[in-house]
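Inverse folding, one chain.
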C-alpha cells in the first residue's frame, strides 16, 4: 500500500523543491482567499523545474467561469481542487472534489461518485488549512467509497496513526508542516513524508 502525499499551501519555489525532494506526489497552490494564497502566474513560476510526475493542484472553493478562465490562462494544473458542488464541467480542468465532514456526507459522496466522476476526492473538516481533524474511524468508511485523500489536522506526529486508522488513498497537509502560519518548514515536510512512508510498511493494499 503506497499513500499519495500532497503538500498544500506552496508559496515559493524553494518550498516546492523541498517537498519534491522529500518525496511528495503532489503540490497544492491555494488560489482561494487565504494567508497562503498565490496567483496563477506565481504558481506557474514556482513549478518551473519541478518534475512532470509531480501533480500540480490549484486549490479554490467555488470558482466562477471568469476565475477559471484566468486560472487556466496563466497556470496549467493537473487538477483543480474545489468544493464538490462547484461547477467545473466546462472549464477544461479535472475536478478534485472536496467533501467536508458533516452528518449525511456519505450519501453526498455516493451520489457524486455514481454519476461517473473521478473516484478520487478530498475529505476534510469544515475549514481548510486550520488544522481541524476529522474522525479517522468514520473516515475509514468514507474511504471505502473511492480514493479518499484525508486532510485536516495532520502532522508528522499523528499522520501514521491516521493512515493506520483511516487507510486513505492519500493524505494532504498544510498547516501541519508550518513553523508559523503560512510558512512551510522543510524539516517538517521531510518528517511528514517519512512518517507516511513508515506507516506504509507492513500494511497490505
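Residues assigned per position:
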Amino acid at each position: 500500500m503506497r499513500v499519495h502525499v500532497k503538500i498544500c499551501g506552496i508559496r515559493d519555489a524553494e518550498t516546492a523543491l523541498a517537498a519534491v525532494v522529500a518525496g511528495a506526489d503532489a503540490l497544492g497552490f491555494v488560489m482561494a482567499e487565504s494567508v497562503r494564497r498565490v496567483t496563477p502566474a506565481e504558481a506557474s513560476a514556482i513549478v518551473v523545474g519541478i518534475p512532470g510526475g509531480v501533480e500540480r493542484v490549484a486549490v479554490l472553493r467555488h470558482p466562477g467561469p471568469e476565475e477559471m478562465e484566468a486560472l487556466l490562462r496563466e497556470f496549467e494544473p493537473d487538477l483543480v481542487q474545489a468544493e464538490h458542488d462547484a461547477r467545473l464541467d466546462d472549464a477544461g480542468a479535472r475536478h478534485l472534489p472536496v467533501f467536508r465532514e458533516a452528518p449525511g456526507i456519505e450519501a453526498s459522496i455516493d451520489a457524486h461518485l455514481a454519476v461517473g466522476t473521478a473516484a478520487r476526492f478530498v475529505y476534510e473538516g469544515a475549514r481548510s488549512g486550520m488544522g481541524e481533524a476529522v474522525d479517522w474511524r468514520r473516515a475509514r468508511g468514507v474511504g471505502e467509497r473511492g480514493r479518499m485523500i484525508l486532510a485536516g489536522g495532520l502532522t508528522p506526529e499523528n499522520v501514521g496513526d491516521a493512515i493506520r486508522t483511516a487507510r486513505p488513498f492519500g493524505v494532504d497537509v498544510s498547516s501541519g508542516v508550518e513553523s508559523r502560519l503560512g510558512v512551510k518548514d522543510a524539516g517538517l515536510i521531510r518528517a511528514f513524508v517519512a512518517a507516511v512512508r513508515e506507516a506504509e510498511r507492513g500494511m497490505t493494499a
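Helices lie at 13-22, 40-46, 65-74, 105-114, 136-143, 159-166, 186-200. The mean pLDDT is 91.
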